[in-house]
Amino acid sequence: MFMRDDVIYEFHHIGIPTSDVREGERYSPQYRMYTSDSDCKLARIQYHRFEADSPLHELMRRMPHLAFKVDDLDRAIEGKEVLLAPYEPIDGFRVAAIVDGGMPVELIQTVLDDEEIWTRAVTGRHARLYAAQYEA
């Protein structure tokens, strides 16, 4: 199990790879992927569609992942198999991905509330991951 006793974990979202073009996709030139959101009310779901040359690890491109907010990202990934080293796709929102039981798990450390996270992701405001498409 990837969870540590000295780190607080809170479920955040589910990420699902897809090959379907979906309405409202945002493009990340850095990872050559398209992201769209589900209208599911029970849990946040993001769909990710990848270009063939996406640099993300194969597990991230083909397996669904769970994402958790953590209070200490560096401690949470310590000694784990890291698929995606910590980086800041949205200002105030650090992310990394590890492997647990053969599945990718996204870990997030942030000072932002959920409304601000999703607003920044959708609008590109303070979000380097998708910002290029909004800079015209």
Could you please describe the fold and organization of this structure?
- This protein has 136 residues and is mostly beta strands.
- The chain has 3 helices and 8 strands.
- It has helices spanning 58-62, 73-77, 114-123, and strands at residues 9-17, 26-28, 33-37, 45-50, 65-70, 82-90, 93-100, 103-110.
- The termini are far apart.
Task: Provide key terms for this protein.
3 helices, mainly beta, single chain, 2,3-Dihydroxybiphenyl 1,2-Dioxygenase, domain 1, 136 residues
Please outline the helices and strands.
Elements lengths: L8 E9 L8 E3 L4 E5 L7 E6 L7 H5 L2 E6 L2 H5 L4 E9 L2 E8 L2 E8 L3 H10 L13
Parallel strand pairs: 1-4, 5-8
Antiparallel strand pairs: 1-5, 2-3, 3-4, 6-7, 7-8
The residue-averaged pLDDT reads 90
Total helical elements = 3
Largest β sheet strand count, sense and barrel closure = 8 strands, mixed
As for the number of domains, it is 1
The radius of gyration is 14 Å
Query: How large a portion of the residues is in β-strands, by DSSP E?
Result: 35-45%
Number of strands: 8
Residue runs with pLDDT of under 50 for 5 or more positions: none
Class by helix and strand content? mainly beta
- The neighbouring-strand order within the major sheet is 2-3-4-1-5-8-7-6
**How do the SSEs run, as a string of H and E?**
EEEEHEHEEEH
- The amount of helix comes to 10-25%
CATH architecture: Roll
Shape: globular
Query: CATH homologous superfamily?
Result: 2,3-Dihydroxybiphenyl 1,2-Dioxygenase, domain 1
CATH C-level category: Alpha Beta
Distance between the termini: 45 Å
CATH topology: 2,3-Dihydroxybiphenyl 1,2-Dioxygenase, domain 1
InterPro entries: Glyas_Bleomycin-R_OHBP_Dase
